[in-house]
Structures are given as structure tokens and as C-alpha cells.
Specification:
The chain is of the alpha+beta class. The protein is built from 13 helices and 22 strands.
Length: 455
């Protein structure tokens, strides 16, 4: 594999320009669905608040925390490499100190995947599109690039990501390491869009893989939890730029339940939020459109019922300005509806105090060994609780239901499973373990939390 396509156009990302190009300084306010309840009003600001860089909690940067505040840690050292050579140096220095090294992105994960007492690596200086091949519809992107920074440059090249999650503040490396996904019965997670990778392994070696060169390593590294090495470059499969027509409406639960399969089959993207205090669903579909003008029209003052049309990069993302914790499991598609019914009953009876919604999405089957969607078309179901409130009672009861339906937990969201319970859920678990031991024999990228997950 080579990371130098024959026909390339280097692209440098200006984050300010990207935001301005997408939304315009004086453009009408773009709507963002906000997790909470149907009574939450649409935001009245152009400022794109939400998931930001993982935060130091003191000026001395001794203690760091994720976005929701569920994870805190004190690294011995924080490094900000600006080149692959500096990543190699950081890994070797961690080896000399006999400590772990973990990459921290935007703090989107709700579990301590990146928490370490050793070296915290921030890839904010390894950001941008290194090369772009319009004919092959591929881009080589530096791993610290945030998803939202890709929209403008790709659109200018007439290209786009085939699918995106409804949060676009994550780094590319963090999103693919955890199989972050959007929704769409025929669409996979971001990890499945990866056609090649470059990483620095636990020995400080630069390793490359692709579908043609070390395909087994690619299948392991597409969803790796950062346990194989530090990603520095990601090659992505792209599609021609496209526009989306979003429709949102509120439906009674029974109507939503009866039409689940039909909605998922008939729309490029379909998802809904069920809210307990109304026992109703905020329904949402996204379909491609040939309309060339951006527009939006809503039938209610909270901008929850209506429609929007725009470029895919502007329509996909939602804004999350209320901090929360989340549990999500991926289930075989035929298990989703029954699992949803049980979760609804749980929240209407035992956990009536929780008013945050259940989110229901569909994702295509994938080949990546540790993808939650490995080998099966899937439904993902998420539950939420405000960050300042106790999430454990609800999440513990919900997890029991998920497990009864053969669910696999989202790697970046709260769950209690460890290696003994996880291994039977993944047919290629032993192969992943073999590759991990090959690339990181000393466990340089393992923390106590990751050891419980993987070892």
C-alpha cells in the first residue's frame, strides 16, 4: 500500500473557513435536534457548542476529563506531536519509562478508553487532508482531524463522506477506533469506510495496511480501541457530494413500532427518539435530493416538526449542548423491536424519573473484527441520563435486557462487560488478540481498563 495516489490534490484545512463555508457568518440559523425532551427549544446561536477537545480541569493540566465528566485522569506527561517521527519518539519514551500511552481525542467516549497515568497523546497538530484523489474518490487524512473539518474541503472537491454520525466533533481516529456510526439500513459505521491505515505500533515502528497489503491487520485496526498503536493516517473511501432532505415529525409509539421495518427499508436514513413523558417518538428521515437551494420549514415553535434541505455535511450533525452519559448496545436487526418494547416498559415503570430519550438506529453489517456490527445487519439502541444525575440504576437494568437479546456494547459508551463476556460475542476475537500481541507485545497501549476489556 502507498499513501501517495497517482493523482492527488493536497488540501489544508482552515477550521474557521470550514465553519464559515458550511453555515455562513450571516446565514440563517441551522436547526440542531437537542437530546432532552420535545419541549427543548431549538438553539438560538450560530456557535457550534458541543463536544470539544478533551479538557484539562486545572491550569497545571494535572487532571484531565472527558466531555460528560464521567472520566478523570492525571497523566504524567501530555505530548502534542506534529509529525509521525514525534509520535514514534513519544512511544519510545513511554517504553523507556515503562508506562502506558493513550491518545485522547475530543472526550466523546463515556468510558476510560484514553485515561492513563502515563502519557496522554493529543493529535491536534496532526490534522488535515494530506492527499485527495478525485478520480478514485479517496482521501488520506491525518488522524487528529475532526469530522466537521472535512465537510468544506470535500465539498469543494465534489466529494463527501457516505455517512456520518449525528455528532461531528470527534477526531477521525477516535471515531473509527470505536465504530462510531450514523443510521441507515444499508450504511455501515465510519470504520467500514477505511481502506488503509498507517500507525505507530508498541515497538515504535511505522506500520501500514490496506485491503491489498496486510488485510488481516486492516480488519483488526479498523476498530481497535487504540490497542494496536497510534493512528497517524487514515485512507477513506468517499462518494460524490450529495444533498439531503430531512423530515421530522412526532408519532405515537404504537404507530412507530408498527412501521419500523417499512421506514428503515424505504429511507436512506431513518431513526427516532422515544420520549417517556409523552410516550411518543420524534421520527426523522434523511433522503438524497436534487433540490439545489438550502431551505428549512418548521410547523412548531420548537422546530421539531418540519423539514430541511442542504448539503449532507450540514444536515447530518446534531448539536448536544446538555451534558449526559450514555449506554448503547448493537443488536441483530430482528432483535431490535422486541428489545425496544422491553426498554420502554422498564422506563414507564421502574424508571419513570428518567425523561431522557431512547434513540433507535439501523446500521449495515461489517467485516471489522471488533465492530459491534460485525457479521450482522444491526439495530443500535441508546439510553441517556443527565451527567449530573445517577445513571447506574437505569443503565444496569437496561444492560440486562440488552444482553438477553444478544447485544454487543458500543466501545465508547458505558457498559460493564469484560473480556470473558465479550469474547463469545465476536467470532474473530482470538485473531484480534493475536494481532494485538504482535503489534504491542509489551502492552504499551493497555491500561487497567483496557486489560479488563481485552485480556
Amino acid at each position: 500500500m502507498t499513501f501517495d495516489p497517482v493523482k492527488v490534490d493536497p488540501v489544508k484545512i482552515d477550521p474557521v473557513k470550514v465553519d464559515r463555508d458550511l453555515f455562513g457568518r450571516d446565514a440563517p440559523i441551522s436547526r440542531r435536534i437537542v437530546i432532552g425532551s420535545f419541549a427543548v427549544a431549538a438553539l438560538a446561536s450560530l456557535r457550534r457548542a458541543g463536544f470539544g477537545q478533551v479538557q484539562a480541569t486545572s491550569e497545571s493540566a494535572e487532571e484531565w476529563a472527558n466531555w460528560s465528566g464521567s472520566v478523570h485522569w492525571k497523566p504524567r506527561r501530555v505530548a502534542r506531536p506534529s509529525s509521525v517521527d514525534e509520535v514514534v519518539q513519544a512511544v519510545r519514551e513511554a517504553t523507556e519509562h515503562g508506562e502506558s500511552l493513550r491518545v485522547a481525542g475530543t472526550g466523546h467516549s463515556f468510558v476510560p478508553l484514553c485515561a492513563t497515568p502515563g502519557t496522554t497523546l493529543l493529535l491536534s497538530q496532526l490534522s488535515g487532508i494530506e492527499s485527495l484523489d478525485r478520480e478514485r474518490r479517496e482521501a488520506t487524512v491525518l488522524a487528529g482531524t475532526k469530522l466537521y473539518q472535512l465537510h468544506g474541503p470535500l465539498r469543494e472537491a465534489g466529494l463527501a463522506m457516505e455517512t456520518l454520525p449525528d455528532i461531528d466533533r470527534q477526531t477521525l481516529a477516535g471515531a473509527i477506533a470505536t465504530a462510531t456510526h450514523g443510521t441507515g439500513r444499508g450504511l455501515p459505521s465510519l470504520s467500514a469506510l477505511v481502506t488503509g491505515l498507517r500507525l505507530v505500533d508498541g515497538r515504535g515502528r511505522v506500520v501500514e495496511c490496506s485491503r491489498d497489503q496486510r488485510p488481516d491487520l486492516l480488519a483488526a485496526a479498523q476498530v481497535s480501541l487504540g490497542a494496536l498503536g497510534v493512528l497517524t493516517h487514515v485512507r477513506l473511501r468517499l462518494v460524490p457530494a450529495f444533498r439531503l432532505h430531512e423530515r421530522t415529525w412526532i408519532a405515537p409509539f404504537d404507530e412507530c413500532r408498527q412501521e419500523l421495518a417499512q421506514r428503515a427499508a424505504n429511507h436512506r436514513h431513518f431513526e427516532f427518539f422515544w420520549v417517556s413523558d409523552r410516550d411518543a417518538c420524534l421520527m426523522k428521515t434523511l433522503d438524497t435530493t436534487t433540490e439545489t437551494e438550502n431551505r428549512e420549514h418548521f410547523e412548531d415553535p420548537d422546530q421539531l416538526v418540519g423539514e430541511r434541505v442542504g448539503d449532507s455535511g450540514a444536515i447530518f450533525p446534531s448539536l448536544r449542548n446538555r451534558r449526559f452519559n450514555e449506554i448503547e448496545y448493537s443488536l441483530a436487526e430482528d432483535q431490535g423491536p422486541d428489545c425496544l418494547v422491553e426498554l420502554r416498559e422498564l422506563m414507564l415503570t421502574k424508571h419513570r424519573e428518567v425523561t431522557w430519550p431512547i434513540e433507535y438506529r439501523t446500521v449495515a453489517a461489517e467485516d471489522a473484527w471488533l465492530s459491534q456490527m460485525h457479521g450482522r445487519p444491526s439495530v443500535t439502541i441508546s439510553l441517556h441520563q443527565a451527567a449530573q444525575l445517577d445513571h447506574e440504576p437505569l443503565f444496569q437494568d437496561a444492560e440486562a435486557i440488552f444482553r438477553n437479546h444478544g447485544g454487543r456494547p458500543h466501545w465508547g459508551k458505558i457498559h460493564t462487560l469484560e473480556a470473558a463476556a465479550l469474547a463469545p460475542l465476536y467470532p474473530r476475537w482470538s485473531e484480534f488478540s493475536r494481532v494485538r500481541q504482535e503489534l504491542d507485545p509489551q502492552g504499551r497501549f493497555l491500561t487497567p481498563y483496557l486489560r479488563r476489556l481485552l485480556v
